[in-house]
Amino acid sequence: MKLSVIIPCFNEQDNIELMYNKFSKIFQEQKGNYELIFVDDGSKDKTLNNIKNICKKDKAVKGLSFSRNFGKESAMYAGLKESKGEYVAFIDADLQQNPEILLKMMKILDENEEYDIVTAFQKKRKDGVILKLCKKAFNYIINAISETEFKDNASDFRMMRRKVANAIIDIPEYYRFLKGIFSWIGFNNYYIEYEVEKRATGTTKWSFRKLFVYAKEGILAYTTMPLKLPIVFGILGILASIVMLIITIISYSSLNVIITIMLFLFGIQFIFMGIMGEYLAHDYIENKHRPIYILKEKIGDSKNEN
Ligand code: UDP
Ligand code: MG
After folding, report:
1. Nearest atom within ligand 1 for CA of residue 70
2. Each residue of 174-202: pLDDT tens digit?
3. Measured from the CA of 42, which atom of ligand 1 is nearest?
């Protein structure tokens, strides 16, 4: 099978059929060569029923359903594990991302062997001013303190080769942040610009609170910097105590002696907190059980070589 398309759905009852119809029309010529995987992320409306109805009439459609709302990241992961295609793509259920772009993504992967992932990004965000600023700030902060690079405005709207999908499946961590995982796994990205369309029906499933938690998870998952920060304060404390020591010697004041000792002790304390943070950070990273490396390709059969 050539293509698996994963569609996370949370309370999208009216979009399921719309999405299915639009996709089927665009991919008419590829019939038999693709599968659509709708993942119902614990919807409370008729989303699951509607998925079931489509599955009944079309063999190319599969459905997965969660016992409760686990979040889009979990839905995408479940879809990946279920997918069989040579290429795998994510697309939202609300038709904000035009399935026609999937055809374009497929063509890029077909024609450019050197690229492994096609990622769509929005040149112009259509969010409100505050949300736009928050998203920009988040991107700036996470890029500044994390070792992994995050592309501005990159979306979850992507198509990848099987080897990339398998690499993601092999990352089992519970606190998932797919944007970060995509940066972490590497591979060659081809970026295409796209314009977000109006939601077909329903409203956004992301409240400000949900987005805030998502951003927090992203930072926690992709940097251990805050744990190591006390070391910087510790060193500053020690340096300040040295300056104070010099002032004390010159001024010969007993108050300065107390301040010097306090600064020195603060410094030592913070340094030890930072060291504890370093150990904790190591343990945290180790506990994610990430693969030590990801093979992109194996060239030649090493068993036959001398
Ligand atoms: N979604 C999901 N689980 C959630 C939240 C959202 O599966 O907990 C799905 C949702 O049904 C949609 C996609 O993720 O297909 C993007 O969500 P939405 O359109 O609400 O986000 P926005 O486009 O507003 O950023
Ligand atoms: Mg949307």
Report:
1. 8
2. 888 888 899 889 899 999 999 888 888 99
3. 3
Find the ligand nearest to 42 CA: 1
Looking up tokens 């062997």 gives 113
**Taking the alpha carbons of 234, 240, 246, 252 in that order, is the dihedral positive or negative?**
negative
Nearest residue to 110 (alpha-carbon basis) of 91, 89, 86: 86
The DSSP letter of residue 94 is T
Q: How far is the CA of 56 from the centre of ligand 2 (A)?
A: 26
Cα of 13 to ligand 2 centre, how many Å?
14
DSSP run (H or E) holding 158: strand 154-161
Q: Are 125 and 194 in contact (CB under 8 A)?
A: no
What confidence score (pLDDT) does residue 145 get? 78
CA dist., res. 233 & res. 267, Å (int)? 7
Q: Tell the residue number behind the tokens 């499933």, with chain if given.
A: 205
Six token digits for residue 250: 């010159």
Rounded to the nearest 10 degrees, the angle between the axes of helix 72-82 and helix 162-169 is: 120
- pTM metric for this prediction: 0.85
pLDDT tens column, 240-252: 999 999 999 998 8
